[in-house]
Amino acid sequence: MACDIQRGRVEPCKDKVGGINKVYFVNKGDLGDIAMTGDVIDTVSGTPSAYEFEVRGASSYTETPTSSRENGTTYFEQVLELQLPQLSKEDHQTVKMLSYGHPHVIIEDNNGNFLLAGLDYGMDVTGGSIATGSGMGEFNGYTLTFTGMEKVPANFLGDTLSAVGFTVVPGAPIV
Fold first, then answer.
1. Rounded Cα gap, residues 164 and 161, in angstroms
2. Chain centre distance of CA 68
3. Other C-beta atoms lying within 10 Å of the C-beta of residue 122
4. pTM above the 0.85 mark?
5. Of the candidates 79, 76, 80, 1, the residue with the CA atom closest to the CA atom of residue 39
6. Other C-beta atoms within 10 Å of 9: how many?
7. pLDDT tens for the chain, residues 1 to 175
């Protein structure tokens, strides 16, 4: 049967950490042809641009599988929560465009793993805030929640972004 598992799992060592290092946004439809080995993305065609965002602290990625025996369906909800400190004119424009679009999102965790969320349908900004804070020591910046629904879990990338075929566009400092 096609849905039978093919391996078990032993308890891993405690040598990993949580958290996100960076996220990369790719405009919806720019991935081109994708070559995969199993569920791992080996290459993309056309060297699509991956716009780099450094993140720290309160940013997280969570994926929730949902299956219904009655309906015969399974899907994976992908949720990325970003906290981007400091408001700027340039970032304001970028946040607006991210909110209008349906980007593919690459999440780089603090263990060097790259996951591509929103592969088929992209991800949408479904919430967040633009805040100045009320006191001098409070958060000033953007919080954004991206949500996607896919038929399969987010795919791992087999190598670095450039080796897979992406052109990384580094983040610009806030001036």
1. 5
2. 25
3. 19
4. yes
5. 76
6. 6
7. 577 877 787 777 787 888 999 999 999 999 999 999 999 999 999 889 999 999 988 899 999 999 999 999 999 999 999 999 999 998 999 999 999 999 999 999 999 999 999 999 999 999 999 999 899 999 999 999 999 999 999 999 998 999 999 999 998 776 5
